[in-house]
Amino acid sequence: MTTAPALNGTATRTSTMAQALNGALRDAMRADPTVHVMGEDVGTLGGVFRITDGLTAEFGPERCLDTPLAEAGILGTAVGMAMYGLRPVVEMQFDAFAYPALEQLFSHVAKMRNRTGGKLPLPITVRVPYGGGIGGVEHHSDASEAYYAHTPGLHVVTPATVADAYGLLRASIASDDPVVFLEPKRLYWGKTEWDPTAPVEPIGKAVLRRTGHSAVLITYGPSLPVCLEAAEAARAEGWDLAVLDLRSLVPFDEATACEVVRSIGRAVVVHEASGFGGAGAEIAARLTEKCFHHLSAPVLRVTGFDIPYPPPMLEHHHLPGVDRILDAVARLQWED
Amino acid sequence: MTVLDHRHTAAVPGWLPGATAPRTDPAPLLPDTAPVRVLGTPAAEKADPALLRELYRRLVVGRRYNQQATTLTKQGRLAVYPASTGQEACQVAAALALGDQDWLFPSYRDTLAVVSRGVDPLEALTLLRGNAHTGYDPRASRTAPLSTPLATQAPHAVGLAHAARLAGDPVVALTMLGDGGTSEGDFHEALNFAAVLHAPVVFLVQNNGYAISVPLTQQSAAPTLAHKAVGYGMPGRLVDGNDAAAVHAVLGEAVERARQGGGPTLVEALTYRVEAHTNADDATRYRQDEEVAAWREHDPILLMERALRELGLLDEQLVQDAADEAEALAARMRAEFHADPELDPMSLFAHVYAEPTQQLREQAAQLAAELAAEAEVHH
Ligand SMILES: Cc1ncc(C[n+]2csc(CCOP(=O)(O)OP(=O)(O)O)c2C)c(N)n1
């Protein structure tokens, strides 16, 4: 896995995830002239979430391109650009608006290296703001990670902290394989202190955000803060919960996940996407296969319901919250 | 002749049957260079006075609807409102050009067209208020749900029109989209299918100059968007989209042509989005105030008022009635949206399938238990 050095000279700073992502794009473009940003409204406007703010001003419209409104066209064009030596970073405006590009993503982006015997790798990063909790009307809140994770050939990365947003985006852009980079919209505006000069970690390493010995909550992206909150609340119930942030679904850091699960013996996988056929199903199955004799209870899942994403006034009933997580923890066969 | 008989295409003389292009003469399909106008031209004198007054009334009420919905959004009463302020001529004329049996396939900005079609103005806002997805019955109003994924509703319009034609029903489908939407693959595929199937469908592109921040010059290099019709083998028409009488006339013609078996038409209406893209957008980042001001001078209500006055059709009664109706509607919107609606969380599980799966039944039971426990705590 390639790593890229952080160029930002300054030490610790406080910023939002949106600003960290913007910084990562800027630094990557400064470091490598083959990095090109393209998408709908990414130029003058700086993207509807302002993640590309100021890039056209600094690098010109050739490096940060407002494209016509056509997702299949954007990604298909990026494929050709990558074939000619560029490193495109594509922005899909919202999760559900990436769907017109799925043909290009599934049939070409994911497969080109394989189809060409390794001759045509595609170093493309597809940034997708995803997930709910922002009060969006239909088609603005999909948690679409399972579609991507189910497609061999794609890396699927999703940061949950400001520092990871910077580091993982740098690593994704530096990757010679295509990366679907899922940005949890509802975490865009949360501010934290972080160190932009810290070394960029490679893609594929899970991190334990909180230690604990009762059970581990395994999660990623938008659900990390919910899990940390649940772990805090669990103390009142006498549970000491660990929280594992996967950071990428592909590669799945099986070694770290298994180590944690084997040492604790109880696990709940948490994500907001629908449960059936979701990433949690894969993770739970895999952990059960690998850690069966260390488990004191089946690996449980807490997920969104198996329904189309609801209207904003009802979304809080759909999204996994602290209570639902604690209910699952309570079902981990403590009496045995 | 079956409905899929292709003899309607006029072969160009001098070419052998089955030979390659050109198979039809493109000249009759080309749009006029200047957009069609009615108001302020001699054509206005020939227009039906009742129609002009009706358009005026609907424009005034429509503008107020846009304003009130925008205000409600600022007050947090709607989740989002993509206003069609400045584009009311297209919105009301599109709805008026259709008959009761026809179908409208609107985009996310076309709430006012849906209302003009006869859907209850409050029900039409359900999606944007955020309590349910589609608040009206598409079958009852022959109005498809507002489509947010751009241009994706265009092939649906073609399919419905095709099916109606196969059934021998004199039904026309009209779909509305923006200039940005014309870049999507679905738009092109819909035009091609419509022309090949000779489907009774009308495509109305409201070219308001921008797709969020992206100006038309970065969206398309076509001479006009109406020219896109020619490549697919249907006529393209260009119209002043702020001239409600002109939009109504051009759409009316296209609808009648489609109904009579003449096939599809693409209409480009030149208009302007006076407000920001939505309440979440800051339009000052990508366009100049002078540009907005210039378009305000070409406002659809101003154009209509001026024309009616010239024709001696703008009496005080009409002005007063329109204003009263507009205020009554705005008051109704304020009253209805004053408080959050009563919502049933269990509605999450309704209509996912005709019959819920076993898993969905279990999940519904889980939510019901959670809600019961919550209610317990509150008592
Ligand atoms: C497939 C798809 N991609 C992106 C979006 C996000 N989006 C919503 S509106 C919009 C601009 C649409 O511009 P245009 O078609 O000109 O219509 P207008 O907003 O001007 O009415 C964009 C990019 C979307 N809704 N659907």
Automatic annotation (TrEMBL), chain A:
Matching entries from CDD domains are given as: TPP_PYR_E1-PDHc-beta_like
- Pfam families this protein is in? Transket_pyr, Transketolase_C
Q: What is its EC number?
A: 1.2.4.4
Source species, please?
Kitasatospora terrestris
Which PANTHER family does the protein's record reference? 2-OXOISOVALERATE DEHYDROGENASE SUBUNIT BETA, MITOCHONDRIAL (PTHR42980:SF1), 2-OXOISOVALERATE DEHYDROGENASE SUBUNIT BETA-RELATED (PTHR42980)
All copies of the Transketolase-like pyrimidine-binding domain together span 15-190
The protein's name in its UniProt record = 3-methyl-2-oxobutanoate dehydrogenase (2-methylpropanoyl-transferring)
What cofactor requirement does the entry state?
thiamine diphosphate
In the UniProt record, does the keyword Isomerase occur? no
Gene3D superfamilies assigned to the protein according to its UniProt record, in alphabetical order: 3.40.50.920, 3.40.50.970
Q: Which InterPro entries match?
A: THDP-binding, Transketo_C/PFOR_II, Transketolase-like_Pyr-bd, Transketolase_C
Keywords attached to this entry? Oxidoreductase
Q: Does the keyword Transport apply?
A: no
UniProtKB/TrEMBL annotation, chain B:
The UniProt entry, under SUPFAM superfamilies, shows: Thiamin diphosphate-binding fold (THDP-binding) (SSF52518)
Keyword terms: Oxidoreductase, Pyruvate, Thiamine pyrophosphate
UniProt cross-references to Pfam families, sorted A to Z? E1_dh (PF00676)
- Which intervals hold domain Dehydrogenase E1 component? 59-332
Checking InterPro entries in the record gives:
Alpha-ketoacid_DH_E1_comp (IPR050771), DH_E1 (IPR001017), PdhA/BkdA (IPR017596), THDP-binding (IPR029061)
Q: Which residues form a coiled coil?
A: none
The cofactors required by this protein are: thiamine diphosphate
Record-linked PANTHER family: 2-OXOISOVALERATE DEHYDROGENASE SUBUNIT ALPHA, MITOCHONDRIAL
Quote the NCBIfam families the UniProt record gives.
Answer: PDH_E1_alph_x
Task: Return the protein name.
Answer: Pyruvate dehydrogenase (Acetyl-transferring) E1 component subunit alpha
The primary gene name is: pdhA_2
